[in-house]
């Protein structure tokens, strides 16, 4: 895992892990929820969201990280990497960030 919380944290056993294809259905469900939330107020077709199946092809450019507590996936982040001449290096853009409602504000 990339990150583990220390003892005494409100989110014990919290981990950030890389996306793998076996988590596809859970990720797709969370993506659909993100775009249906009133906060987002955008519509996106299911066909576009299903393009995430092609994600491994872009592995060198983008990252999908899953947030996990105990054995449950509780959220995700979609990160886009690109080069910036202006800043003189790699830039990481957080394109999407989602946490299941019952785990927010913890």
Describe the fold and architecture.
- With 106 residues, the chain is of the alpha+beta class.
- The chain contains 2 helices and 5 strands, in the order ββααβββ.
- Strands 1-2-3-4-5 form a 5-stranded antiparallel sheet, covered by helices on one side.
- A hairpin with a 2-residue loop joins strand 3 and strand 4.
- The longest helix is centred in the first third of the chain and has 13 residues.
- The radius of gyration is 15 Å and the shape is globular.
- The mean pLDDT is 79.
What key attributes describe this structure?
106 residues; alpha+beta
Blueprint of the fold:
Blueprint: E1 3-4, E2 14-18, H1 24-36, H2 46-49, E3 62-69, E4 72-84, E5 89-99
Antiparallel strand pairs: 1-2, 2-3, 3-4, 4-5
Please provide a brief summary of the model.
Helices cover 16% and strands 37% of the residues. By secondary structure, it is α+β, with helices and mostly antiparallel strands.
Radius of gyration: 15 Å
Identify the strand order in the major beta sheet. Answer: 1-2-3-4-5
Annotation field: number of helices: 2
The proportion of residues forming helix, as a percent range, comes to 10-25%
Low-pLDDT runs: none
Strand content: 35-45%
- The beta-strand count equals 5
């Amino acid at each position: 895992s990339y990150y583990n919380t220390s003892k005494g944290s409100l989110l014990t056993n919290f981990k950030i892990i890389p996306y793998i294809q076996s988590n596809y259905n859970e990720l797709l469900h969370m993506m659909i929820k993100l775009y249906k939330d009133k906060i987002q107020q955008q519509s996106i077709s299911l066909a576009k969201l299903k393009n995430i199946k092609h994600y491994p092809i872009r592995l060198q450019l983008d990252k999908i990280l899953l947030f996990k507590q105990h054995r449950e996936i509780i959220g995700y982040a979609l990160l886009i990497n690109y080069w910036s001449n202006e800043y003189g290096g790699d830039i990481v853009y957080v394109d999407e960030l989602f946490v299941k409602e019952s785990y927010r504000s913890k």
